[in-house]
Structure formats: structure tokens, C-alpha cells
Design brief:
131 residues, alpha/beta, Transcription Regulator spoIIAA, 6-stranded mixed beta sheet, 4 helices, 6 strands
Length: 131
Amino acid sequence: MNFSAIIRQVGQVSVVEVTGKLTSFESGALRTSIAKLLKEGRMQILLNLSGLVYLDSSGIEDLVHTYMSVIKSGGEMNVVGLTDKVEEILKITQLYQVFQEFKDERSALQSFSGDSSKRKTVLEIVRPSKN
């Protein structure tokens, strides 16, 4: 399963639905997506990882880099939908202490400051370029 990130807006929050494998082959695709959101001034980001089936050390690095970029830009980032495998990796690496995780999207959206309406619009699908 190839990596993809589908981005949609729910009020002020950008929901990034991550699917597939986040590995060294896809390294940078998530960073690029988040950097574009930050450049557009979208500072409230929710990563939905329910479709993430595999994560290697490069994928972990992407998650950490993404989180740090959002925080350094003055934004907020939360996580929802951790699969058992991904949650285990985050616990082993102690990253579960860094990411604020929620059991469902609704509670995650409500945790952000500001208004989050229920309007949903798919903005783009990001896939890594094949080199």
C-alpha cells in the first residue's frame, strides 16, 4: 500500500488522513504536506493515522519533524486513530508522551482552540513522487 495524505478542512482544523506506509521511500511527503499547510497559515493540524499500516525509523523522524515544525510555527497538532502497531512503536520510542492522542476525531477536533464547524472539504491528495 502506497503512502498518501488526504487533507480536508473541518472549520479551522486541517485534518490530514495518512494512509499506507510511512518509510524511507516516502520520506518527506508528510513534511511537505504539513509545510504547505503552515505556509498557508493553517496552524491547527489533526493527523488521522488510522490508515497508517507501517512506520519505520524514517517515518518516525517525519512525525517528529512534522510535530516540531507545527509547534515552532506557533501551531497545534494532535493525533487520532493510532493502530495497535503504530501505538506500540510510539510507546517504544517514548513518542506517545509527545503526541496528544484522541480516541475519535470529534474529541480531537473539540480540543483545538477556536471554532471547528462540521463543514468538510477535500483539498488535496499528496503522494510521493516516483524517482
